[in-house]
Amino acid sequence: MLKIENLTKIFAKGTINEMTALDGVNFHGASGDFITIIGSNGAGKSTLMNSIAGVFPVDSGKIVLDGKDMSDMPEHKRAKMIGRVFQDPLKGTAFDMTIEENLSIAYNKKRRRGLQAGISRSDRELFKEKLALLGMGLEDRMKEKVRLLSGGQRQALTLFMAVIAEPKLLLLDEHTAALDPSAAKKVLELTDYFADNDKLCTMMITHNMKAALEHGNRTILMQSGKIKMDISGDERKKMTVEKLIEKFEIDNDRMLL
Ligand SMILES: Nc1ncnc2c1ncn2[C@@H]1O[C@H](COP(=O)(O)OP(=O)(O)OP(=O)(O)O)[C@@H](O)[C@H]1O
Prior knowledge:
Layout: E1 2-11, E2 19-29, E3 34-38, H1 45-53, E4 60-65, E5 68-69, H2 75-78, E6 82-85, H3 99-111, H4 121-132, H5 151-164, E7 169-173, H6 181-195, E8 201-205, H7 209-214, E9 218-223, E10 226-232, H8 233-238, H9 241-248
Parallel strand pairs: 3-8, 3-9, 6-7, 7-8
Antiparallel strand pairs: 1-2, 1-4, 4-5, 9-10
Helix pairs in contact: 3-5, 5-6
């Protein structure tokens, strides 16, 4: 589903601040894969996601998603195939619009229609039915403005908006880090639910190494712009947070145990 070849990103090239954030990264993600990504501060995790999403041009390398070479595609075109959720619950939704308006925008992204097309009764029924799956009672609050929602509810809605357009790739950049523990747990459960879709490849950055080993089917560890570990199956089942810390000499306060 996702093929990355020799991806390199250098910030502030040719200056005293030059920084190689991605150093020849090679990576394959299959349909149905749910890959957790760990690594110390500055390891290149967000740069990897931003490069895939086309936030900035890369210095070299190739990115192919669902057979399409996206390397030279602008960000807005890639966004049709990629869903993203960020750490900040304020980022993914239009807070002064209602829940159903937000959902409609996300849903119509796939159908290339704008909000002016209106919300049909069948769309509304679909939203209601799907919102009920979140288990937060949002299906009865569809005409409320998003700004009235809690951080956890908003992040669940953002996640839902990211998948309703049926992307090929879902990029989650510490999307539970700003939530209180019970909201984070709920959003992670929803993430498991949405990622369990064999048409989707999910990548999730987390500083919580325990969560990284418990969720998904594969874990990669980044260090200095490179993928230093890529584990799945039995190797991953046997991996522990303590072994990771010892093996990769991880020294990072944000790596929550
Ligand atoms: N826009 C930018 N301009 C200059 N340098 C940048 C930029 N974005 C990232 N960097 C640098 O690239 C390196 C990789 O950063 P990146 O944000 O990808 O790391 P990360 O693994 O996501 O870290 P964190 O866990 O702290 O978010 C860092 O040294 C960072 O300072």
